[in-house]
Amino acid sequence: MGALMWFGVLIVMGLITVLLVALGYLLGEWIGLIVALIFSILLNFVVYWYSDRIVLKWYRVRVVTSEDYPRLYEMLSRLSAKAGIPTPKLALSPVGTPNAFSTGRSSKHSIIVLTYGLLRVLDPEEIEGVMAHEVAHIKHRDTLVQTVASVIAGSILGVAYLIGGIPRFFSDGKMEDSQNGLLLGLLAPFAAGILWLGLARSREYLADESAARISGKPLALASALLKIDKAVSFRPMKGGNLATAPIFIVNPFRGSLAKLISTHPPTEKRIERLMKLAEQMDTYT
């Protein structure tokens, strides 16, 4: 697992380096190439060490203690012990859409974030299933590559947003400005490519299965996924960074670009797998 994680991180960082160096050469030939190379090295350093903090800041996360939420911490502590990892920190995000994600460079520096909406919509067993899913991601060392890929892709999409290309591109399906359209045409698929290469749908299936075995409640996780997916369809998240969609347990965004960069398997397939797993677990108990 560790080797695969580092391979994923290297792929993501290598891609952004290649892009920046190529753009630097096109804009300023060899001087531009050297400047871009130095900038990419600095960017990769910042992203590796601070990507988790960047994501937490994007979602205005507040770390809570066991005194604030004793039942949640007791639940998290029990799940972490079963998974064989240190108990992560727990934090809340003031977002009304139910969802959750985890981040951190390692299991020793990990944090699980729940939205206020999730605490309102799910029952305790469903919350336990969601936290078990995030614990599984931490156990499998998915959080580093997920966060690094999301922050880099988010930065790329941010460039397109700043120039105003995305609103025009998706408003009526026509590129009203040739330069903006060209830049978006290059940047948006590149951002999506980073997410698809750095992340894999199989990781979500694996986290679901591991969560079901850690918690012993696959149907509770299936129910949670269904509730979250329905809530997102009625009230998708507003104001977040689209490139962070892969770190959430369910894609919290809707729209053309959200579909382009989504790395989640269909929720119905995840639920179907969990229901089959529940039958298998009942058979062997």
Largest sheet, spatial ordering of strands:
1-2-4-3
Rounded Rg: 20 Å
The number of distinct helices, counting runs of at least 4 residues, comes to: 11
- Give the amount of beta strand, in percent: 5-15%
At a glance:
The chain has 285 residues and is of the alpha+beta class. The protein has helices at residues 2-58, 70-83, 116-121, 124-139, 143-162, 165-171, 178-198, 201-215, 218-234, 256-261, 267-283; strands at 62-64, 89-93, 100-104, 110-115. α1 (2-58) packs across α7 (178-198), α4 (124-139) crosses α8 (201-215) and α6 (165-171) crosses α7 (178-198).
Descriptors:
285 residues, alpha+beta, four-stranded mixed sheet, 11 helices, 7% strand, elongated, disordered N terminus
Your description of this structure?
- The chain has 11 helices and 4 strands.
- By secondary structure, it is an alpha+beta fold.
- Strands 1-2-4-3 form a 4-stranded mixed sheet, with helices on both faces.
- A hairpin with a 5-residue loop joins β3 and β4.
- α2 crosses α4, α8 packs parallel to α11 and α9 runs antiparallel to α11.
- The N terminus is likely disordered.
Describe the secondary-structure layout.
Blueprint (H helix, E strand, L loop, with lengths): L1 H57 L3 E3 L5 H14 L5 E5 L6 E5 L5 E6 H6 L2 H16 L3 H20 L2 H7 L6 H21 L2 H15 L2 H17 L21 H6 L5 H17 L2
Helix pairs in contact: 1-5, 1-7, 2-4, 4-8, 4-9, 5-7, 6-7, 8-11, 9-11
